[in-house]
Design goal:
Layout lengths: L2 H21 L11 E4 L2 E5 L2 E19 L5 E19 L7 E3 L5 E7 L3 E19 L2
Antiparallel strand pairs: 1-3, 2-3, 3-7, 4-5, 4-6, 4-7
Length: 136
């Protein structure tokens, strides 16, 4: 392969990678949801999730794993300044353990008493404020 061919293939590869990044392709289990965020600070680790934002629109999903013989108490804190925020927590195929639609500013606890993976679905509609879930 000569220098010109190498340059051509490198350019084509770079354009393809850029197209994939811009298109929002996701890899992994679950569904991809469009999410738009303005002035957002997101923190996530093995024991919690928190977001502070000027505007959040769309749906995002997280997984909380409860190991054998354990129970998690999930402390949820929501600040709702504008728009709406809804949260659902449950195991796939089961009735959710918590469903909150258009949740007002509040702090409360949801208990995850069974072993397994719980899906957390957060849906925001022009939401300004913050949320946090802590299961440490």
């Amino acid at each position: 392969m000569n220098h010109l061919q190498r340059k051509y293939y490198t350019t084509v590869l770079a354009v393809c990678m850029l197209a994939l990044a811009v298109s929002g392709c996701g890899y992994g289990n679950g569904n991809y949801h469009q999410l738009t965020a303005v002035d957002r600070v997101l923190t996530q680790d093995n024991t919690g999730i928190s977001s502070k934002h000027e505007r959040l629109d769309g749906t995002e999903e997280y997984t909380i794993h409860v190991p054998d013989g354990k129970t998690h108490a999930v402390l949820i804190n929501i600040l709702n300044q504008e728009g709406s925020l809804s949260i659902t927590i449950g195991k796939n195929g089961d009735t959710p353990v918590y469903t909150g639609n258009d949740v007002e500013s509040s702090t409360f606890t949801v208990y995850l008493r069974e072993t397994g993976d719980y899906k957390v679905v957060i849906t925001a509609n022009k939401h300004k404020g913050s949320y946090s879930l802590d299961w440490s």
